[in-house]
Hints:
The protein is mainly α. It is built from 9 helices and no strands. It has helices at residues 6-13, 18-24, 27-45, 51-62, 66-85, 87-108, 112-125, 163-177, 193-197. Helix 4 (51-62) packs across helix 5. It is elongated.
Amino acid sequence: MPLPATINVCQTDLFTSENELRAKYDEITVQRVLRIRDLYSYVIANPDTKDRQFVERAVSMFKVSQSCAYNDLAIIKALLPMLSKASRDFHRWRANEMLLETYRMAKARKDTKTMERAASSYAKYNRVDLEDEQLIPYDEIVVQPFTATDDPTPLGIKPIPNIQERIKKMLDKYIAESIDIQDVEFEECDLEEDDLFGDLDDGEER
């Protein structure tokens, strides 16, 4: 069976836990992803790293060939624009890794206070003390009924007594002041196009 393309795997599972990676992929692919994850973290922490320095580090740390190191570099450069959009996920993963590493180191030297603080920070950061969010039952939401009205009382505005009569008086007043304005009926405009343009041959534009 052909191995999956490394860049495709990294696009979806670069920050997936090692156990989940091993459940989904073969050992060679898992090792590639873990190596690229570490090298990606190095590039993020050292953005001014030159390509040659990157290759030297990859060869030294992971005992891979230069061609393999350059392939890893090409994958990381291709992933950077996409991963920058998910930088929050990356930093969340890094924070969890740091907390777990702190816990492991504290456990090794039997430092229970630090273990407790690291465990507490991990739980708080990942919000394990909160219940899982429930989906909103949109089909059970009752639409608020609204009724149209010309009564301004619901808005807290005191209605004007005899408002319709006052409107009529204002209209009569302004109509009387604008006596020279006349309303005219709409009339269809007759351009007499046949006389103006005559007969045109087919395909000729007017």
